[in-house]
Amino acid sequence: MRKKEWKAIITFRTTSDAMAFEKKCKEHTIPGRMIPVPREISAGCGLAWSAPLEERVRMEEFLQSQSTAFEAITELLF
């Protein structure tokens, strides 16, 4: 079984917002991956971006610099 770690989970209102964000992250080598929204979180679409918690500030800055539409950033033991 995989060890649980604290993650920064970014949720999106629409699937297209999530997919656009994933593409931008890959282009800029931003750490993380697209995951199904954990059941502990409520979100508009079924996708979320999971990144190491220590990357949260970097993720927030990247979201602002790219003017990316997102719903929320949640810290979760995942």
Structure summary:
It is built from 2 helices and 4 strands. The chain has 78 residues and is α+β, with helices and mostly antiparallel strands.
Question: What features would you highlight for this structure?
Answer:
single chain, 78 residues, alpha+beta, Alpha-Beta Plaits, 4-stranded antiparallel β-sheet, 2 helices, globular
Structural account:
The mean pLDDT is 93. Strands 2-3-1-4 form a four-stranded antiparallel sheet, covered by helices on one side. The longest helix is centred in the first third of the chain and has 13 residues, at 15-27. The chain has a single domain, classed as Alpha-Beta Plaits (2-Layer Sandwich). It has two helices and four strands. The two termini are 12 Å apart. The protein has helices at 15-27, 56-65; strands at 6-11, 33-36, 47-52, 72-77. It is an alpha+beta fold.
